[in-house]
Amino acid sequence: MSTGNLDFEQFRVFLEKACGILLGENKQYLVSSRLNKLMEQQGIKSLGELVQRIQTQPRGGLREQVVDAMTTNETLWFRDTYPFEVLKNKVIPEFIKNNPGQRLRIWSAACSSGQEPYSLSMAIDEFERTNLGQLKMGAQIVATDLSGAMLNNCKTGEYDSLAIARGLSQERLQRYFDTKGPGRWAIKPPIRSRVEFRSYNLLDSYAPLGKFDIVFCRNVLIYFSAQVKKDILMRIHATLKPGGYLFLGASEALNGLPDHYQMVQCSPGIIYQAK
Length: 275
Fold this sequence. Notes:
The chain is an alpha/beta fold. 45% of the residues lie in helices and 19% in strands. It is built from eleven helices and ten strands.
């Protein structure tokens, strides 16, 4: 094995231990593109040297910067559309019927740059506009991500033209955003105040997060090994109230765990109900 391959192997082991992400064997290009700038700034010549430096300075900011760079993903507003329609047309009405007088709690796991939790908040607002007074106690969205830097950006609720263009309709832009200057918009306070951002590693215990009626864990599990994925799904089940719903990504399927989840066909789309 060449030095470069050995370095990459060491880095793969480090990343999986740090946050569970399993890099494919052919992903050297991804690592280079995401870490080149950071390594240049720190005067680090190779991945091997990077791993060594992280191990000798475990408390330094370098470890966090590396994990940030490797886990940061831009995402879309109302990604795949159907989950948000299913939420408004099926899941929220069902919740109101079965839980009168309770507040709806949703977890957006691995919320990345904030589009998912803010899309959820807008969807709840759209439901409330057409079903006045039905969601009496309102809703709380807990949005978590591993990246501290990403979460700080999320909290401001500000986005540029490039981010806005990724799936947001003109109507929603006008209704839910304030203009902050040329090419910049900020989410309006009522939409923002429904979302609470927390830094969280999916490998850690979920107990401090409390119980949820709905969990969105979309397009995240693809990064984990089969064993870690199964462990995360079982622990998400423990956070869901009986009958609560799990939303996965459009191309993700929940194989196994028949004692924990029941598949619900929504045409379009599939969601999973906690048994």
